[in-house]
Amino acid sequence: xxxxxxxxxxxxxxxxxxxxxxxxxxxxxxxxxxxxxxxxxxxxxxxxxxxxxxxxxxxxxxxxxxxxxxxxxxxxxxxxxxxxxxxxxxxxxxxxxxxxxxxxxxxxxxxxxxxxxxxxxxxxxxxxxxxxx
Length: 133
Hints:
Elements: H1 2-62, E1 73-76, E2 81-89, E3 92-93, E4 99-100, E5 103-114, E6 117-128
Antiparallel strand pairs: 1-2, 2-5, 3-4, 5-6
């Protein structure tokens, strides 16, 4: 009887080894998929950060120009982002009832495409531009 148990034992060890390798392979594939998803998310966050910084730079550049030159378009060829600015007059009333003049709403739109999916971000600020005399 002792000899028959010795012959069965190596078969169980081989089966346990194959089972353990299978579980290990599934775990490694799951980790690889998680790592890939994390890298894609990091790339999306980096792209959003690039667009935000580009919009901030475009805003600072545009708001210093005269009113007639504030509506313009600029293309960032490195990242494939198009920045478009437009202005429109704003009427604001003070608490005393008088109207504030020479205030404009400056709107900047950043348009880009990632994996053939168009994306758009908008930034809107009030700008004071006194009338040129």
